[in-house]
Model the fold of this input.
Amino acid sequence: MAERESEQRVTAYRPSDDEERDPEEDCLQDPDMVIKHPLQNSWAMWFFKNDKGRDWKDNLRVITTFDTVEDFWGLYNHTLPASKLPTGCDYSVFKAGIQPMWEDVQNKKGGRWLINLNKTQRQTHLDDFWLETLLCLIGEGFDEHSDDICGATVNIRTKGDKLGLWTRDASKTEATKKIGQKLKESLNVPSKIVIGFQAHSDTAGKAGSTVKNRFTV
Done:
């Protein structure tokens, strides 16, 4: 129940472009007196920019952390949409204390549900898919399996973009499948399109195209 209420809270406080505001009221309102709505977890947003002259880890940095609904929307509305990122760049949003890399102790036994998008889908689907994934993420939208979620990534690449939802333990077959089903449902991915789950232990050191899916939905 707590997870569902958290998910509804994130959606309920999504700002509207058409919402009329009173400029005088905004000026008089003390930011420190605004009541914010806490998320169940604290999150960190990361940015990766591919610079071949630097070590991979040096190309990865934290943009900021957030733990309220309002701070999430403030961040989301003031960062470049994923579809506008240069090729080779990534956004990642992970629970605070977890780094967006296979080697992290909380990731290494897990894996990711992966959605591949072609170039045309960058303009038609990518931003919506990324936002809906984030809302499921921070709103604890995976019900009793939300604790198994580590974070999500979006990778902008020349051959096609990728959106990944990272989980903690690839050996938890039933939970992993239910997470994939929930993700597919939340993003309204057509039933005829199959998405797959890859364990990090299978993916490490291999090209993505050579890795077999452990599960599909």
